[in-house]
Amino acid sequence: MTRVLAFATAQPRISALGPYVTEVVDVGGEVRMACWFDPAGTAVDAGLVEARCVAAVQQQSEAARSVRRSWWRRTRTKAGSEVADPATRRWHDARDDPWVAREADSADFFVALDQDAVYPVWELARAHPGVRASFGLHAVISALAGRLTLTDGR
Amino acid sequence: MSHLIYIAIGFPPAAKSSAYRMRATANLFCEAGWDVTVVTIHDEGWEREFGVDPTLSEGVDPRISIIRLPLSREDLEPDIRKYSEFRARHPKAWLTDLRRREMESFPEPVFGLWREALERSVAAVHDERPADLVLVSPAPNTGMAAAWKLWSDRGVPYAVDHRDAWSLHTYQGVEAFTRDSAAGQWESRILENARELWCVNVAIADFYRARFPATADRIRVVENGHDPFPQPVSPHRPDAEQGLTFGFLGTSNFPADMLNPVLDGWCAARSEDPVLARSRLVFRGHFGAGMARGATRHVAAIEARAQDRVSYGGPVSKADLGKVYSGWDALLLLIPGGRYVTAGKTYEYVATGLPIMSAHAADHGANCVLDGYPLWVPPPEELRAELLAQSFSTTARLALEASDEQRSDAAAFGRRFDRRTLLQPAVQALAHSVGASDLTEGAAR
Q1: Tens digit of pLDDT per residue, chain B (445 long)?
Q2: Using an 8 Å Cβ cutoff, are B295 and B314 in contact?
Q3: CA distance A14 to chain B (A)
Q4: Is residue B182 classed as helix, strand or coil in its secondary structure?
């Protein structure tokens, strides 16, 4: 069973995503997606096993702490901290999500479905030697068919 | 036996329209008794772009040697583990820097960094088996640097098969760069010393004759033409009760803005014409490359009209072309550009013998091919929805009312443009023009 963990920061078009997911499923794989939007509908329509909004977890926990920590976050932002950088923020969202951590441990491929999802995938790949990481699901299909080489970091 | 080094990036199995012309050219040289070595890139490079179509390789003469260089478009690298942290975090800034580095190597974005590898490999092929002629088929234009260098260093004559043009934006019909720019200086250097320059239509040839008057007598028009379909197209008589199927097969190289009036025209025609109300409009072909495959604005616009029976069905392999065309009743020729663009698709369309509705600029190079085709609906004066709606209705009538004689005439018209028939005189003339005395030509300069 090939397990693909995909990341998307913007809603992918079902017509673009669905056929590739189908191809992965046809060769005995399954695709899960971590995203930064409401995935309702996308999972079923595109044939994903599961989709999860990682930002929601972050937002909930942030909201709970917001009163206590607002002064601290303001200070950090003013100082131009890394947390203000969108790429880093997305990586932290993914890193801190227990669902992503669980799925990442059993994934064979990490996939960025759009440009802004590349950095979290790049960081995850560094933390998980042995998992191949690609930009786009098509590369996974090509790799599974032996037409393309994706390195695994080992 | 004479030896040709053919720099043909896009050679089969690349799923690119250039593959057909390149295959036919290499085969014709081979059949003319030449030893042919093709220099192209490895299949993984195409996997990143439009993919590969293994059926295209089936027609390549097995006597042809193929060197597949491990070159790929760096901007389409799918392996994220190969990205630097800078690229992963700042993709736009990284791309800007890449384009700058490419232009430093050779004045062509995307491909400039391939120059050194191409020059080295062409020289290595020549060292192993001395070449009598180099033929280079841009794009990428960087390939011309390798041909020029071998001529400059070793005196091997070269010719350029410009499927498109370099200093001319063929779609916009304007000069791409001036003669004194870096690209302009390279182009002058290359074309002024080329044995021949092939262009795909008269308009581009005229542009180059005006730009390089001293080269004018070495410029030849070699039209694209089409290949026989692996399975013949079997036209059927459309059924007005069931409705017609209009088909588009090609790449989405037209602006998305050009598609909208066509779709609007289709919807308007359906509301007026009961036959069209029962009909379908199907788009097939490569829409988007690399990560954007099937995810272009075009596909979004098509899907938004699903209720009007408009759909996108993905790419079609060469082996299935005949089957796909046989299922359609009329063809939509939607191509960008103007008088400098002919489009290989135009030739393939006339080969089907099906009614063709033109949806392109009124003054377009495709008109030169289609003029006289018995089942042609010429483009409207402007690409406005109401005019295109009329074109859809006219095409539907033509498809329903065409006589057997008209269909037969259309099929015969298409046979004029057989690719090999069009290419053969050019290949023969170029092959005969190369003699032993040429071998010192470049080195003596």
Answers
A1: 999 999 999 999 998 889 999 999 999 999 999 999 999 999 989 988 878 888 899 999 999 999 999 999 999 999 999 999 999 999 999 999 999 999 999 999 999 999 999 999 999 999 999 999 999 999 999 999 999 999 999 999 999 999 889 999 999 999 999 999 999 999 999 999 999 999 999 999 999 999 999 999 999 999 999 998 888 888 778 999 999 999 999 987 788 889 999 999 999 999 999 999 999 999 999 886 555 555 567 888 898 999 999 999 988 887 899 999 999 999 999 999 999 999 889 999 999 999 999 999 999 999 999 999 999 999 999 999 999 999 999 999 999 999 989 999 999 999 999 999 999 999 999 999 986 344 344 433 3
A2: no
A3: 9
A4: helix
Give the residue numbers spanning the domain of A100: 2-144
Assign 3-class secondary structure to A91-114.
HHHHHCCHHHHHHHHCCCEEEECC
Report the chain B residue with the minimal C-alpha distance to residue A148.
B44
* Residue B123 forms contact with A (CB below 8 Å): no
Boundaries of every domain in chain B: 3-225+419-440, 245-415
Q: Is B256 on the interface with A (CB under 8 A)?
A: no
The position carrying tokens 């191809």 is A23
Q: Distance between CA A33 and CA A4 in Å, rounded? A: 8
Q: What is the CATH number of the domain that holds A108?
A: 3.40.50
How many domains does the structure of chain A reveal?
Answer: 1
Q: Name the closest residue on chain B to residue A112, using Cα atoms.
A: B80
Strands annotated E in B114-170: 133-136, 158-162, 168-169
Prediction ipTM score? 0.87
Q: Is B3-225+419-440 in CATH node 3.40.190.10? A: no
Q: What is the DSSP letter of B229?
A: P
What is the CATH code of the structural domain delimited by B245-415? 3.40.50.2000
User: How far, in Å, CA of B363 to CA of B14, rounded?
Assistant: 31
Residue of B nearest to A128 (CA): B81
Q: Which of B41, B53, B79 to mutate to test the interface with A (most CBs of A within 10 A)?
A: B79
User: Cα distance from B291 to chain A (closest Cα, Å)?
Assistant: 5
